[in-house]
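stuck on this one:
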Amino acid sequence: MSARSTAVRQPVWADVRRRVPGAPADLTLHVLPLPEFSEWAFSAAGCLTGAEAARACAIEETRARELFVVSRVALRHVLAHRLGCRAHEVPLDHDPRSGAPRAIHGRAGAVTAAPGPGTAPSPELGRVHPVRFSVSRTAGVVALVTAQRAVGVDVERLQSAVEADVLLDVLHPADRARLTRLRGRRRAAAVTRTWTRVEALVKGWETGLSRDPAGIHVGPAARACYGHDWTVSDVRTTARENARLAVAWRTDPGPVG
């Protein structure tokens, strides 16, 4: 992959923040339209590691490669801003077993991935709240969420009727019964919406789809509690995005006594 040589002005990140209804103050969601971010992302691709650049080059389909580069470059810059370091210094890492992204500890000059098994954090880093993140990308859109708690995000382009029927078969029986009563585009939109909520939850739980979606009942509410520990919420999308978006986060514990 060859980064473009002409420098392009970095985006104003506040302009692409998206409100998440009911979310805690430490949670931030950015929604990036691919056409508006592609040129900048390729011009700033020098922040990628050698492994990330090689992964991008290995993606043969042009739009898929573009989505990967935009999502990874933007993620590095968003996290760098939050952590107080440079984009190339952000230590992105994933659990080798689950594939889930590891939390990052740090501030300017002291940034590190959350320690793996058998290692202990330094006293300095131990005083810093870890930053967790989740990324999702679909045709034309990238969604990035960061928080000081476990979090998950999913964005999906609006499914066709055939695609929606395939997804319908793997959903929880109660959700399936509710959605089956709908017809045409309403069903496709509602199934897509339900699926994004399931995906956001399993990303936050760090299980991925190793956890059976048929056991996850999300219901019809725009924002809902899942058990005592998790909240999942729809996020508004535009007609141009032609997608559905959901964010899940670990809920603050209630007051005791």
